[in-house]
Design a protein that fits this description.
Number of helices: 3
Number of strands: 0
Shape: elongated
Order of helices and strands: HHH
């Protein structure tokens, strides 16, 4: 039982990490291009959606505040 909980926790951490990395990578790509294309904005929206679905509550809250102030 304890092993299953640990595996579930590890899997959640891995999924969250992947979502955060995808988000940061697309933000970095947009910043380095100095302008947004429809394709980049689509990637950004997908990455934001992933973070909203699997991210921690604190990350989702901060993301909401950040994008509301943009």
């Amino acid at each position: 039982y304890i092993g299953r909980i640990s595996n579930k926790d590890k899997k959640l951490v891995d999924i969250r990490t992947d979502a955060y990395i995808d988000f940061l990578n697309i933000v970095s790509e947009i910043a380095s291009n100095k302008h947004s294309t429809p394709q980049l904005l689509s990637k950004l929206n997908k990455a934001k959606s992933k973070v909203i679905l699997v991210g921690s509550n604190s990350v989702v809250k901060e993301m909401k505040i950040f994008f509301r102030n943009c």
